[in-house]
Amino acid sequence: MDKRTASWGMAIVMCLVNAVAFIDRTSLPLLVQPITRDLKISDTQMSLLIGLAFIFTYSIGGLFVGALVDRFPRRRILALGMTFWGASTILCGTTFNYLVMFAGRLGVGLGEAAGGPACMSIIKDAFAPQQRGRAIAMWAMGAGLGAGGALLAGGTILRLVGETGSLTLPVLGTIRAWQVVLITCGLIAFPVAMLVTLLPEPARAPNASNSEAVDFRSAISDMARRWPVFVPLFVANAATIMISTGYTSWFPAFLGRVWHVPGGEIGLRLGTVVLLFNTGGQFAAGFLIDLIRRRFDANLVPLFGVLMSAIVFVPAAFIPSAPSLDVTWVMIIVQVCSAASLFTIGTTTIVHLTPSHAVGKVSGIHFAWVGIMGTAIAPTFVALLSDRLFGAKSDSIGQALSVFAGTLSIVALLGFALVWLALRREQSGSSAAVILPVELSGEAGNTTISK
Q1: Could you tell me the pTM of the whole model?
Q2: What radius of gyration, in Å, describes the C-alpha atoms of the chain?
Q3: How far apart are CA 79 and CA 192, in angstroms?
């Protein structure tokens, strides 16, 4: 097998890793209705399971794992993380106790903290800059595959058994349908973790010394020196994730409460949409990013983000006020596709701007940041808007989503525009600089750009 084939094989495995992660993340929002009923908890308490419990350990663990990724074999760290989060998801599916489920979600977050930094570091060292857009898009496509698969499988189980139904299984005995979904999601992680252990370890860049690898100061220093680029980029990426997570967390509940769509049908339809159009948006974005880098000015990549932010605004703001269920589904297709492309644009830009020896640390910081904003804050913020501002009525979730996601799409647009302006200023300030398609120098704390 030649090096090129092996590299794309690694990208496929990274896609599977991300798919398993999003199977875990997406299954819980689909199960909001039966879990809140069986555990007798409120929407706000449910949002803490979806958000805070997961992201608390995900963000802290991401910073720690990011340093480990820059020093130790990445495939071992990734396989261990997958095994841990799979076991934690199974724990969530075997309990009716809110505190035990909260603890399980803490474990899921800690395990999944290994995913982003390890995958980004592997892709950084395994692919040339002109190929990374597609490689990162393949990794990101796992989100659509996992989320869509979870919705389809969960929807099928709920449709066959019923949201309040039960199954009798060997060893476990009689369990609820939502427990079957969570246990199944956890079991899927184990074979993929075994596959990860078979991957070759990509050679690190020569400048990736061990002494630098555990030092966050150099990574933060590089970003601080280029704050006009990194600050709006981090803001735009957070806004993008918050739009997607807000809708992913509460759109099933919105369909059930406003349009009275059964949980099984929501899972099947929404799963098909995510499977086809989330992955399609990721793939198209990766292809176009590499095309822009090869044939045009690489600094146009953030303008691509501006365009997609403008497109996502329409469905993000107006899905809840659609005049019919059919129009609602059409708008969610546009929203899913455009929001997915924004995630690929933002993540690819972060990786391109980061030196190889620091990509684990910077990715850890980045995923912790967008995780906190997207997973911890977004679901709870939407729930609080619904409960406090709009009066916890049947259509209050829709009103909350409209205000929340519409505002954030404008924030994302402005963020990508500021990144583009900052990169143009950097390029005009140094005729020797080529901003996006190159690597930062290997010297710690050195922000020189080299061809």
Answers
A1: 0.75
A2: 21
A3: 8
Tokens matching residue 102:
């909260």
What is the total count of domains within the chain? 1
Residues of the domain holding 389: 3-200+209-450
Two structure tokens written together for 288: 């176009």
Name residue 175's beta-bridge partners.
167
Cβ–Cβ under 8 Å, residues 118 and 79? no
pLDDT mean over 338-363: 87
Phi-psi group of 121: left, alpha or beta (phi > 0 → left; psi -120 to 50 → alpha; rest → beta): alpha
Of the candidate ranges 10-19, 24-33, 75-84, 118-127, the one whose mean pLDDT is the lowest? 24-33
Q: At what angle do helices 216-225 and 359-371 cross, to 10 degrees?
A: 70
Q: Supply the DSSP string of 165-195, one letter for each residue.
A: -EEEETTTEEEEHHHHHHHHHHHHHHHHHHH
How deeply is 332 buried, as exposed, middle or buried, from its count of CB atoms within 10 A (0-12, 13-18, 19+)?
buried
Distances (CA, A) of 377 to 115, 341, 446: 21, 22, 34
User: For position 287, which CATH number holds?
Assistant: 1.20.1250.20
Reference 420, options 298, 295, 291; nearest CA is 298
| CA dihedral sign of residues 121, 130, 308, 26 | negative
As beta bridge partners, residue 176 has 166
Residue 390: its H or E element: none
For β-strands 173-176 and 439-440, DSSP reports them as: unpaired
Among residues 343, 350, 303, 352, the alpha carbon closest in space to that of 129 is found at 352
pLDDT tens digit string along 86-133?
999 999 988 889 999 999 999 999 999 999 899 998 988 888 888 889
Q: Specify the DSSP element, H or E, that contains 200.
A: none
Distances (CA, A) of 8 to 83, 132, 137, 201, 289: 24, 11, 12, 14, 17
